[in-house]
Amino acid sequence: DVKVTQSSRYLVKRTGEKVFLECVQDMDHENMFWYRQDPGLGLRLIYFSYDVKMKEKGDIPEGYSVSREKKERFSLILESASTNQTSMYLCASRGGGNYGYTFGSGTRLTVV
Amino acid sequence: AQSVTQLGSHVSVSEGALVLLRCNYSSSVPPYLFWYVQYPNQGLQLLLKYTSAATLVKGINGFEAEFKKSETSFHLTKPSAHMSDAAEYFCAVSEDFNKFYFGSGTKLNVKP
Fold first, then answer.
1. For the CA atoms of chain B, what is the radius of gyration?
2. pLDDT value of residue A98
3. Does B99 contact chain A (CB < 8 Å)?
């Protein structure tokens, strides 16, 4: 089974801090994605990556950046955390063919 | 542009009753359609997917969904609800198997 591992389940950070959310997948997938999940809004795409060192903006990239230095790892960076970035963050990966995403378990981030 | 509408943010059924979760989509091209399930404090798991083969798609845990192009719908059903089906369900659409667009989710409550 493909595993997508997010390094933290729960995280509490202060306003203004730089925050790193890490995601690792173990199946050599080219495509990786970061979503945030908020009640009543579903999942919204922040950034995605088709390959190492490549990144594309999703629908809500403001306030975020990403890094993909190795194929298996895709990091989401909050340059200066704000309270409106309190949310559940979900990482996903996808290989070729007509398969859907495989999701990690999520990181629930609280910014105080 | 693609969008997904899930009618009903909360659905409550009795154990043994029919489950019907509604999903309507808009897409400029024939879409790929998915249903995901999320249990508390977990990531999303794929329930089933439509990829332009049979219009009636069977998934895991006894769920199925029917693609109706004329109605732009992909409703999820299960003949007999079980307590373990209580979760949040997300419908998703994609035109290219890369970017997915998710609905806002429907929380299913199963009463004993």
1. 13
2. 64
3. yes
Measure the CA–CA gap between B2 and A9, rounded to whole angstroms: 31
Instruction: Reduce the DSSP state of residue A46 to 3 states and report it.
Output: strand
For residue range B58-74, list pLDDT tens digits in order.
Answer: 999 999 999 998 899 99
Task: Find chain A residues with C-beta within 8 A of B34's C-beta.
Answer: 100
Residues 6+ apart with CB under 8 A from B96: none
Q: Strands B73-78 and B87-94: what pairing?
A: unpaired
Q: Which amino acid is at A57?
A: K
Residue range A35-79, pLDDT digits in tens:
999 988 889 999 999 999 899 999 999 999 999 999 999 999 999
- Here the tokens at position B89 are 């369900």
Rounded CA gap, A50 and A32, in Å?
7
